[in-house]
Amino acid sequence: MKSKIFDIYAFADYSGSKYKNVQKKSIALSIICNDNEKPRTTKCYTRESLSFEILSLLVNATHNDQRVIFGFDHSYSFPDGFYQVVTETRWITWGQLLDLLCYGTKELPPVNDKPREWALAANDFICKRLNIKAGGPFWGPNFKYQVTNPKFFEKTTRLKEKRLTERRCPKTKPIYKIGGIGTVGLQSLYGIQHLTKLLYDLKDRGIELFCWPFDGWDFPSSGHLLVEMYPALVNEKEKTDEQDAEACSTWLYRQDKANTLIPWLYPNLRDDELKMARLEGWILGVP
């Protein structure tokens, strides 16, 4: 009798660099399969080649009647308030945010391959919409347009600096911070676009993927599962790209093998928080 839910466990440590040679030095993909607890970890990926590798993994697994649980080292969504302020409409689904970032609006262009320029445009637009003279939420040491923290979130209550899951895990950094140790701002702006394309590619191929918790809290008994993880929660070794990726794939494998994975998919949240996390996402491993 099969005790584990999944057959393959994969995690990619990501990169926010615009240079392909730097991406190849930073992006690591770790995979565990076939009951072999030792992960297979490879580097030399660009964001594009990583997307192709993940797509190939899911296509082959589907063909072999195998289930994959996987994730990337970046945020999949924004904190409450961002979508509402930019569009002046209700935020009802995660897909609305993906469309905003990937296709833009009349006032704000898509992110494309210029996340810093997009963040500058978003800062200007948000400040105008909220009638705030200067600043904007995006800042960071690698963001020349606003290097120091403008304390923007002290000027308005309409945007949250962090997602609920990040407020539960204080050492995480907000998506609004561009550059610096432990930040994922650039990775997320790039990564969400590639993730969106992956979703469309899988849909075109008829491959079932459940995006937790955006698609719900009760995942189906078939298909693959996308989760968000924060490597610092599970990596007790050296903080390298390879070790982060291996720590996450190993954690997923061991939790599934020990039949302790399911409880992590149901964090202790109130009804209103469960609803919000369906939009903001949730970091697996945060209770």
Give descriptors for this structure.
287 residues; alpha/beta; Nucleotidyltransferase, domain 5; 2 domains; 6-stranded mixed beta sheet; 10 helices; 6 strands; 39% helix; globular
What do these coordinates show?
- A hairpin with a 6-residue loop joins strand 2 (28-33) and strand 3 (40-42).
- With 287 residues, the chain is an alpha/beta fold.
- The protein has two domains: 8-75 and 183-280, Nucleotidyltransferase, domain 5 (2-Layer Sandwich), CATH 3.30.420; 82-165, no CATH class.
- The chain is built from ten helices and six strands; from the N terminus they run E-H-E-E-H-E-H-H-H-H-H-E-E-H-H-H.
- It starts with 7 loop residues before the first strand and ends in a 7-residue tail after the last helix.
Strand-and-helix sequence, N→C?
A: EHEEHEHHHHHEEHHH
Q: Could you list the spans in which at least 5 consecutive residues all have pLDDT below 50?
A: none
Oligomer: single chain
How would the global form be characterised?
A: globular
Alpha carbon gap, first and last residue: 30 Å
Write the layout of secondary structure elements.
Blueprint: E1 8-13, H1 20-26, E2 28-33, E3 40-42, H2 47-63, E4 68-72, H3 82-87, H4 94-103, H5 115-130, H6 164-168, H7 185-204, E5 209-211, E6 224-226, H8 241-257, H9 261-264, H10 271-280
Parallel strand pairs: 1-4, 4-6, 5-6
Antiparallel strand pairs: 1-2, 2-3
